[in-house]
Amino acid sequence: MPTTSLPPDVRPIEVWSWAMFDFANSGYTTVVITAVFNAYFVAEIAGNAPWATFAWTATLAVSYALVVLTAPVIGAWADAHAAKKRLLLGSTAGCVLFTAALAAAGSGDLVFAGVLIVLSNFFFGTGENLIAAFLPEIARGEALGRVSGWGWSLGYIGGLITLGVCLAYVTAAQAAGATAAEFVPVTMLITAGIFAVASLPTFLFLRERAQPVAEPGRLFRGTFARLGATLRHAHRYADLWRFLLCVVFYQAGIQTVIALAAIYAQQVMGFTTRDTLILILVVNVTAAAGAFAFGHVQDRLGHVRTIVLTLIGWLLTVLLAWLAREPPLFWVAANLVGICLGSSQSAGRALVAYLSPPARAAEFFGLWGLAVKLSSIFGPMTYGAVTWISRGDHRLAILVTGIYFVVSLVIVAGLDVARGRRAALESGN
Asked: What global pTM score does this model have?
């Protein structure tokens, strides 16, 4: 790690400990949202009912709606009270505990499982925003892309390891004759345990550099006043707002893939649980490579060009998945998903950091979280609604998802990054 990428008071161990949170929390999205529990929810908990996929996407939508409602306020409060790390600890504990509790959800436990998904995913999303808000503190402006890429790359490795441990257990359990109702709950405990242990370096070594600016006795009033000031001066950050609108659309497509990949693989391509785990395992490898490589590409090629490149890749991915009738072409699409997933997620986080006023990092990453979670409602809900209306036509649903990437390409074309960066640096507290 070149120290020239870091501010003078940032030690490399801090960057590593910051990236370790990406490593720690990626197991949750990989196992719970993408590879295992989503398909288990549709097939086992909801009994493969015609509305099962829609029920899964609606459950996720509720959790994302909670993040949408709270993220800007939590971000503003964290900035005003220099509390990013304290809030991150609370959100981590919440996600770990409710993920472990999913082990108790079985066939027919629709409401119980749904509540646990809502709570665990809410805490996950809140923590995702808070850890991202540290990025402007630990990396120089010209190195935000590669430092974000290091974190996202390590995150995919974390997801890979968590998924690998689960795959080893599932393979052994299936060989012993166990059913999904018996081995899926154990994978929830594995995921929660790895998240808890792997996040420890973050809380041991990452420093909170922000200083409190809230006045004593104005705990919440000061927070809302700070958020109100940002909204009143929104015109100063026109390019950041434009990019956040772009995020809503392209993340709608990405979050659809994340939430429904295993369901598509099993319902359309006939994959077993073990096949799906292997598929997601390989995708995590390509995603890690994509995040690492494109972090460096972004700092050289430019933020907008990098994002446009990844969006074109997403469009190609959607077309390949729609066309695939046999596993080989679907595997090509899946690996392209990995490359695009790692690169676009990392590039988006770095660009938000680049366009955000340094003193309001958590607040603006709260707005970024709001944009991502809005997209997490629209994208999967669109997919779920199309499958319900079309009586299970997943191919049509994935094709409709491609529209989100087309719209985001149109929006990002008008972005002026240099102007947005000047606005961020000229902004006061």
From this structure: 0.76
